[in-house]
Amino acid sequence: MTGKMSQDLEYMNLALEEAKKCIPTPTAFCVGAVIVLPKGTPGNSLDEDIILSTGYSRELPGNTHAEQCALEKISDSTKSAKSSAVIYTTMEPCSERLSGNLPCTDRILASGIVKTVKVGVMEPDTFVKNNVGKQKLLQNGIEYVHITGLEKECLDAATAGH
User: Fold this and answer.
1) Active-site residue among 67, 72, 123, 151?
2) Of 15, 124, 132, 139, which one's alpha carbon is 20 to 30 angstroms from that of 96?
3) 22 DSSP assignment
4) pTM
5) What are the residues facing 85 on neighbouring strands?
6) Whole-number Cα distances in Å, 130 to 72, 95, 134
7) Is 67 a catalytic residue?
């Protein structure tokens, strides 16, 4: 396994640990997210990656999703790292919220800090049919990468309580 693949799996495993913090519910997925500023990118002069924040579904009040929580916890000073961050999320970011909240795909695009989204598993059609998160991110210049090898673990965590 190459260094980058191993690093991707390390961050996806951290996102999985976040997902496991969710209180399971039959009406929503349990998802985890980690936002990383890679070494050598604008805003990171260190010789190592910086974990900017983490989040999990329903961590913050208001029926929040993992990506939303992680993005909301980023400090204002870090937001200067325009288009440099990578978000690792155990499930494809949502493109529609049945609750009326802003979808995670739109939050990622509006944040202005994310250049790459790395996912563990695509969103099943359980709650929203035809999630177009991947398509919308790609259409808006965000790199989208499926990290293989943890699909079962990501899906098991997501469907806890179902």
Assistant:
1) 67
2) 15
3) S
4) 0.93
5) 114
6) 26, 9, 11
7) yes
